[in-house]
Specification:
By secondary structure, the protein is α/β, with parallel strands linked by helices. The protein has helices spanning 4-15, 27-38, 103-122, 147-152, 201-213, 262-277, 300-313, 327-332, 357-383; strands at 45-48, 54-60, 68-72, 93-94, 97-99, 130-135, 160-164, 171-175, 177-186, 229-237, 247-256, 282-290, 293-294, 318-321, 337-340, 354-356. It folds into two domains: 4-175 and 293-383, Zn peptidases (Aminopeptidase); 177-290, Alpha-Beta Plaits. The protein is 33% helix and 23% strand.
Length: 384
């Protein structure tokens, strides 16, 4: 049933559909996917979590299913940007690479997942579990119109999950936590000619930032993740050049390891602020937070992916993610989760984004191999 030409065509068709986020409109691509699945006899449900924010759900059921496996890529892309050698919606095929916005992130993974799903349906394959395919909206802007409401409303229920959103067949088994903090530092207004009459909040912020950069958080070395990091993302303050600034706002991006506590991190930042500004000289807010997560490398999901990767690629690459992904959202719901994907390295969000055709073909075979191996592994576990 499967053909390389069909997979390549599907990938190019998906790239040609504009699903930039912002502004965020997944309706056209969702309707296209519904049509593709229907051609293979698969029912499809569109779930809107906002105006034109459509998610696509489809279930491949097995009469002997003992569990449900969620497979989830995303529909949206980052904006085009400028400087492309091929138009970003052209899906130009050149030297065995398909160019276009979303080619690697995440329409290659979307195409592979769809092609595997419909090939299994056409072959009337019966696995030991159901496959819930969920192509979600709004991943590039926080999943507030996608995976988050689908989980919160229990529209998605699964026993295991594979996220299709990675590059070069990496198997992502660990992820750092993310903590975004906003600090408002207070001062006292005065005329700029008499700075001694005021308290300059910007100067206070500079002292705070200097000490923050030297702050060390206790942690254990992780085999797949780099040490924790702090980044000063924005700074803004003062009203006018000839006034002593009585306010300064600083936003921080902190990435931390699975063994670390966000409460301890926040306490240390707060203590540092108090030492610089005094107890009443600042306000600290949490503006975003995601927990770190990891899955045991010996888990049945990871073992099955490793076997499929070794058989298909001749290699296995267990990796950690320094950035935040939807792994956390699934992990927080108690769903064992691993991520993998078939994009081309260094292409996500880049100008002249592409995916290598070879990655698509190998990705198709790897995902199928994983699904059959996972089916056998579940049966083996059940028999013990």
């Amino acid at each position: 049933m499967h053909s390389e030409k069909r997979l390549i065509k599907l990938t190019r068709d998906l790239i040609r559909i504009d699903s930039q986020n912002p502004p965020g409109n997944e309706k056209e691509i969702a309707l296209f996917i519904k049509k593709v699945l229907a051609q293979s006899g698969l029912a499809c449900r569109l779930v809107a979590c906002g105006a034109n924010r459509f998610n696509v759900l489809s279930m491949l059921r097995s009469p002997r299913a003992t569990a449900t496996l969620l497979i989830t890529p995303h529909l949206d892309t980052v904006p085009f940007g400028t400087g492309w050698k091929f138009p970003p919606l052209s899906a130009t095929l050149s030297r065995n690479k398909i160019y276009g916005r979303g080619a690697t992130d995440c329409k290659a993974n979307l195409a592979v997942g769809l092609e595997v799903l419909r090939s299994l349906a056409e072959e009337k394959t019966k696995l030991s579990y159901n496959i819930l395919f969920a192509a979600t909206a709004d991943e590039e802007a926080g999943s507030y119109h996608g995976l988050i409401p689908l989980l919160e409303k229990k529209i998605i229920r699964a026993d295991y999950s594979v996220i299709l959103d990675a590059d070069e067949f990496d198997i992502i088994v660990a992820q750092k936590g993310m903590l975004h903090l906003r600090v408002f530092i207070k001062g006292k207004k005065a005329h700029g000619a008499y700075p001694e009459r005021g308290i300059n909040a910007i100067n206070r912020a500079m002292v705070f930032i200097g000490r923050l950069n030297a702050l060390k958080f206790p942690h254990k070395k992780h085999p797949l993740l780099r040490p924790p990091t702090i980044n000063v993302g924005t700074i803004e303050g003062g009203d006018k050049v000839n006034m002593v600034a009585d306010w300064c706002k600083v936003e921080l991006d902190i990435r931390y390891l699975p063994d670390m506590s966000k409460d301890v991190i926040i306490k240390r930042v707060r203590n540092l602020l108090e030492s610089v500004c005094g107890a009443g000289g600042f306000r600290l807010e949490i503006i975003a937070q995601q927990n770190p997560c990891q899955i045991d490398p010996g888990h049945i999901l990871v073992r099955s992916l490793k076997c499929a990767s070794q058989k298909t690629m001749g290699r296995v690459a267990l990796k950690g993610s320094e950035g935040a992904t939807v792994m956390t959202m699934l992990d927080d719901c108690g769903i064992p989760t691993v991520a993998t994907g078939f994009g081309s390295k260094g292409c996500a969000h880049a100008t002249n984004e592409y995916v290598a055709v070879g990655n698509l073909i190998q990705g198709y075979h790897l995902l199928r191999e994983f699904l059959f191996h996972f089916s056998a592994a579940l049966c083996s576990c059940a028999a013990q």
